[in-house]
Amino acid sequence: TMTGAPDLDPGRVRQPPGRAWCHAWTATVDQAVRQWAADLGVDRGLAVVALGSYARRQLCPKSDVDVLLLHDGWARRDLEDVVQRLCYPLWDAGLRVGHAVRTPRDTVRRAADRVDGATALVDRRLVVGDPGLLDDLSVRARRWLRRHAAAVLGALTDADDRRRARLGPHPGMLEPHLKDGAGGLRDVHSLRWAAACLLGDGGLDALVGARYLGAADRHELAEAAGVLLAARCALHLADRSQRGVQADRLRLDLHDDVAGRMGLDGDGLLRRVGLAARAVAHVHGRTWPALLADARGGRRRRKPPARVIADGVRLVDGLVAVDADRRLEEDPVLGLRAVAAAAGHGTHLHRSTTERLGRQLDGRGALGWDGEARAALLSTLRAGRRGLPALADAGHVGLLAAHLPEWPRVRGHRQRNPLHRFDLDTHLLETVAELGDLAAGTDGARHAALWEGLADPDALVLAAALHDVGKAWPGDHSQAGARVARRWVARMGFCRGRAARVARYVELHLLLPDAATRRDLDDAAELAEVAARVGDHETLDGLYLLSLADARATGPGAHSAWKDGLLATLHTRLGCLLAGGEMVPAGRADELLAAASRQVGRESLDEVMRGVPDRYLVAADAGQLAEHARMLSSGPGPGQARASVRPGRVDGTAVVSVVAPDRRGLIADCAAVLAAHGLDVLEARAHTRADRLALDWFVVAAPRGGEPDAWLDDLRAVAAGGLDVADLPARGARRRARRADPVVRVRVQPRPRGARVEVRAADSPGLLHRLARALADAGLDV
């Protein structure tokens, strides 16, 4: 046991979150370890060395306390006793202690096994014990890192790619990972590790001296890292529930608590953290390629000669630089021209260029627009995903704000919305990238063909870059965004027609997604209203592509293969209406019957077709028609029902079909069974023949594991009226409890044949059952 050891409770550190807090907490842990060493009487031949954040004195409340016990050949039994006497008190205090016990020589030898073992050699600090052992390790580590610089930086590059793919590709995430996300603290650490490999000194100052960084970069990194460290510290104090990688995710539900600990509001926190992450990502993205190239080829490698790629713009060692004698005062389009060149090459602006442009923009008024500026902007946007690094540089340096003075309202604007992954301008640029992918055919030739058929694709590119700008202004963001977009596009000098078309795209950018997910796509009257708002094929195709790109840029909550299918169906049917034809092309019924007859034979289909409503042949596909035919071939007798399940058209879905005598409440009872067995309903279709036989089906998220026999038996029984469903939804809800939102909005709109009831509420097991049961109890037919 340790005598007089300090209280190892992070909550007792009385400092605001940030560097001071981390220093104080590190000092507390140091004191505990030194007290242990004094009790043990260790002096020579053993050293306790801090690694990682512990070595950097950046311990946050949930940081791992990584220690290395260096020894000069102690016996294994003695070392085991030492480890127990060091680690157990720290573990008992609730700290996450990672330890290794090695000689200096073994420590360096093990560095080749894993990249984190190699980077651990960079950050090292003696806590207590024999300083000669740390000196021995430091000499060996510097020599090893210099010798293996290419391998270490290559492994770091691969690790960076993997963590960004896992945690988010861009800074500006609405739930950023403060340590490992893009622009997180790990990117700052990577630069220090690269300095140790190339220069023998694991500090940012060494990178300034070697001209990888400028003095302004060094200051910017320090400021940004301070913000991220303070936020991470406050997050650990606010959330005592998470450990490991999840402890560094700034979740939406913690924004206000973390912000309060930092003296901010939720919006201010997100903006400040987002801009800090952008600053880190900007410097890291521009600097890392040069570090990696020098590690692989040597700092004296023969660099390719500079190549002129535009007026006053050159490609210098893979980065775009403007000529030193060119200035924005004489050439206001210089910056946009450089950004367009960088976008075309999928690279960043050179350090010297960002510094020079930043100085020239400082205190300067707005930059104007001409034909060359417009061409440069469109070229950058058309580059799609390859242009994202250059666009990020343009935002960071201030070029976008210089040409669009209202841009600062958009940059870093929070979107505290669970569907969105990014802040506002990051989402806009990601939408441009997704649109570029669609245009290139990466998601299928159909989308590329629609892009090629647009009369004015540049209007759509501009709309993608501006579609949500209205969120930075009060009021409905589609209406406000249309006004802002029209004003900005006109200010750029584009013609009035293009400005009007961009504004129209922005105003209607939610029309198709809302109609696809909230309207009956089999109702011609419903779709005629949507078609009237769209107006023409050019607008329809542009809105369809914009909707797909917007959903993909928003996140998995807004994009899925199922929703893509709904949008595709809507686009096709609106196209038929705009062409002056029927919503469903003439002859579709014959094609449907022919396709289904190849599966089950025409005689079986005749049994299905007797007295079906016209809507059935609009909604059903050949597979559904054939399935109902198979079920009717051994037709249900009086009071009997049939139920079956088959794979859906979209991966991850299944179709549950029901044939039963119709009655009020049938849909509600079937939904109760599905909810009780944990099935999420994506779509429900109810059709009744003239003889009152119901031909229904439900599209559900495919069940995970288990056999469907049990719930199919329940479904048959309840459809036949032989099962009481009173407790089924409750069983399902208990098994899959979710946090419920009590806000429910109901809207009833009279229609020519009945009424449309629109309900918006938090999703929960059994919701469809409760809605359908309420309608049935009111005497209404679905």
Question: What separation lies between the terminal Cα atoms?
Answer: 73 Å
Total strand segments: 13
Low-confidence stretches: 733-740
What's the tally of helices? 35
Percent range for helical residues?
Answer: 40-55%
Largest sheet: 4 strands, mixed
Shape descriptor reads: globular
For the largest sheet, list the strands in their spatial order: 3-2-1-4
- β-strand amount: 5-15%
Structural class: alpha+beta
Radius of gyration: 32 Å
The overall pLDDT average reads: 89
Task: Write up this protein.
The protein has 782 residues and is α+β, with helices and mostly antiparallel strands. Helix content is 54%, strand content 10%. It has 35 helices and 13 strands. The strands form 4 sheets. The chain has a 4-stranded mixed β-sheet, sandwiched between helices. A 4-stranded antiparallel β-sheet has the order 8-9-11-10, sandwiched between helices. Strand 12 and strand 13 form a beta hairpin. Helix 10 crosses helix 11. The longest helix has 32 residues, at 266-297. Mean pLDDT is 89; it is low at 733-740.
Please give a quick description of this structure.
The chain is of the alpha+beta class.
Tell me the layout of helices and strands.
Layout: H1 19-40, E1 46-51, H2 52-55, E2 65-71, H3 76-92, E3 97-102, H4 104-110, H5 115-119, E4 124-129, H6 131-147, H7 149-167, H8 185-199, H9 204-209, H10 215-238, H11 255-261, H12 266-297, E5 307-310, E6 313-316, E7 319-322, H13 334-345, H14 351-361, H15 371-382, H16 388-397, H17 399-403, H18 407-410, H19 424-439, H20 445-452, H21 457-466, H22 477-492, H23 496-507, H24 511-518, H25 524-534, H26 537-554, H27 561-578, H28 588-600, H29 602-609, H30 614-619, H31 622-633, E8 642-647, E9 653-661, H32 666-676, E10 681-685, E11 693-701, H33 709-719, H34 728-735, E12 745-751, E13 754-760, H35 767-777
Parallel strand pairs: 2-3
Antiparallel strand pairs: 1-2, 1-4, 5-6, 6-7, 8-9, 9-11, 10-11, 12-13
Helix pairs in contact: 1-3, 4-6, 6-8, 7-8, 7-12, 8-12, 10-11, 10-12, 11-12, 12-16, 13-15, 13-16, 19-21, 19-26, 21-23, 21-26, 22-23, 24-27, 25-27, 26-27, 28-29, 28-31, 29-31, 32-33, 32-34, 32-35
